[in-house]
Specification:
alpha/beta, TIM Barrel, two-stranded antiparallel sheet, 12 helices, globular, binds ribose-5-phosphate
């Protein structure tokens, strides 16, 4: 019990001043509980409502692809510029310093490699995600794939059940198969299915008509970068996505395969958070590079 000596009566009740409760800055998250909101706030900057996530989970399918051969040399120096890190538990535990204090979006399903088709992904044990203190779990959905659609939707559903229990948000990642059209109708469908099944964040690809994909998705949408583009084009992609309502990016190859990765991620940050145009972003890239 606190010392009762000199116990002072409260006398500063702010009478007449409205309560300082704030509207929440993440789309579709106003009704979530505190732990969930705290984790989302670590990912989405409360000042802008946006995020620059650095994705380097590619190795779980692709192995040591270009730019990710030595994560200690190529990715660790970029951590300071990212709002959130997206990776697998193996890389997190072996190569990412726990002192970075950046939120982690953990790749939380596995079971596929580039040598086979998309297949029966399984989920991580949520206790491991808790032990790793992650801020979100990322689960892939293979919408339109007759063999694996149901399995991957079930994975998302299960991850949301487990994540909700412990206050961990789930990001639905829309896969792109060889047979699937890459248009607003497809990405709109896949994104909406992620959200309907409880995803708190959706990661998808930019396409023409992206504003409709975002409008119809009740939670924040972030874009993957896809294949490596010339830096100016990648910044235009970010700009268009933000302009169409995206809440940020979760980019990999267009950062770590850039000729100047640290300059690139800072330029992307400028476009996402500071309202830079693609020209201004490219100028910043060149200055920093
Ligand atoms: C998605 O499932 C992958 O694991 C990557 O995280 C994603 O494709 C983002 O990386 P990139 O910008 O290189 O496409």
């Amino acid at each position: 019990m606190a010392d009762l000596d000199d116990l002072r009566e409260g006398n500063n009740f702010g009478l007449g001043i409205a309560s300082g409760e704030q509207p929440f800055h993440v789309k579709g998250a106003s009704h979530l509980l505190w732990g969930m909101k705290d984790r989302l706030s670590r990912i989405f900057n409360p000042s802008t409502g946006r995020t620059v996530m650095l994705a380097f989970d590619h190795g779980f399918i692709m192995g040591p692809t270009s730019g990710l051969e030595r994560i200690d040399l190529t990715i660790v120096p970029l951590i300071e510029y990212a709002d959130c890190l997206m990776c697998t538990r193996g890389i997190l535990q072996s190569l990412i310093p726990p002192s970075t204090n950046k939120p982690i979006c953990l790749r939380a399903d596995a079971g596929t490699s580039i040598l086979t088709e998309l297949n029966d992904n399984v989920l991580i044990d949520v206790e491991d995600a808790i032990r790793l203190n992650v801020s979100a779990m990322a689960i892939m959905l293979s919408i339109g794939d007759p063999s694996y659609e149901a399995k991957t939707v079930a994975n998302l559903y299960r991850a949301v059940d487990l994540g909700s229990r412990y206050g961990i948000p789930v990001m639905g990642v829309t896969a792109v198969g060889k047979q699937m059209a890459r248009d607003a109708r497809y990405f709109g469908l896949a994104s909406r299915i992620c959200a309907e099944n409880g995803a708190n964040i959706v990661k998808t690809y930019y396409c023409e008509g992206f504003d409709k994909v975002v409008a119809a998705c009740p939670v924040p949408v972030v874009i993957a970068g896809g294949k490596k583009l010339p830096e100016k084009e990648a910044l235009e992609l970010c700009y268009q996505a933000i302009n169409d309502g995206a809440s940020g990016v979760d980019m990999g190859r267009n950062v770590f395969q850039s000729v100047a990765p640290a300059a690139m991620i800072q330029a992307i940050h400028g476009v996402v958070h500071d309202g830079l145009t693609p020209d201004q972003g490219y100028e910043l890239f060149n200055d920093l590079a």
